[in-house]
Predict the 3D structure of the following.
Amino acid sequence: MLFAVRDIAGGYGAIHIVKNISFDLDAGETLAVLGRNGMGKTTLLRTLVGLADRFAGEVKVDGEPLPARNPRPFARLGITYVPDDRGVFPRLTVAENIRLARLSAYAQTEVDVDALFPELKWRARQPAGTLSGGQQQQLAIARALATGPRLLIVDELSQGLQPSIVEALAEALIAVTRHNRLALILVDQNPKLAMRICDRVMVMQRGEVVAAGPSATLGADERFLDLLIV
Ligand SMILES: Nc1ncnc2c1ncn2[C@@H]1O[C@H](COP(=O)(O)OP(=O)(O)OP(=O)(O)O)[C@@H](O)[C@H]1O
Ligand SMILES: [Mg+2]
């Protein structure tokens, strides 16, 4: 199993925010994490990649348990995380941002980011800080893919972006997960979008998973959609 999560609890210092979370993800599998604001989605992702405290449970990569609160092994293991603020270097150009990401390449998968995001190719010499929000999100995903990951974790793909660019990002993620057997964990506020990109979904409420299953089944279930109404 590429990525196995067993009964984890996580948070910050003495503050416990997520608990009892378990799931498996194999190569090419895609999982959407949904839930209203403040339900613990970001904290879950941060706990998974060692950026928040893990109080209980196990995270295993290829069957090997990882230490809690240590983000360092993840790049080497082919796991890459795009935070909700996107995390690009604003003063560096688009090309420099991507080149830096390649330095930490795991190089399991070779993704042609120029073909995936032609807009970035034209803007190679532009400082990342001068890009639109949508272009910055493209760059954040391009940087993540340039590390040659096996598992991509994205927090808030579409937040604040125009529909046309969201569509381009969605198509890129669908293409790259299928063609490269890339696993994906995606958090997004738009359930329809997240369930279109991902085969499976889980819904969080107050730090716990309250519903989980195939997108095709849950997307048609009104009780499930009620859990997401703000
Ligand atoms: N660094 C922190 N220290 C303490 N509490 C935090 C910290 N970050 C988040 N929290 C709290 O943890 C809870 C879950 O927040 P989290 O950001 O994980 O939710 P979320 O589902 O990602 O929300 P959103 O939809 O707004 O992104 C909230 O009550 C929040 O106030
Ligand atoms: Mg969040």
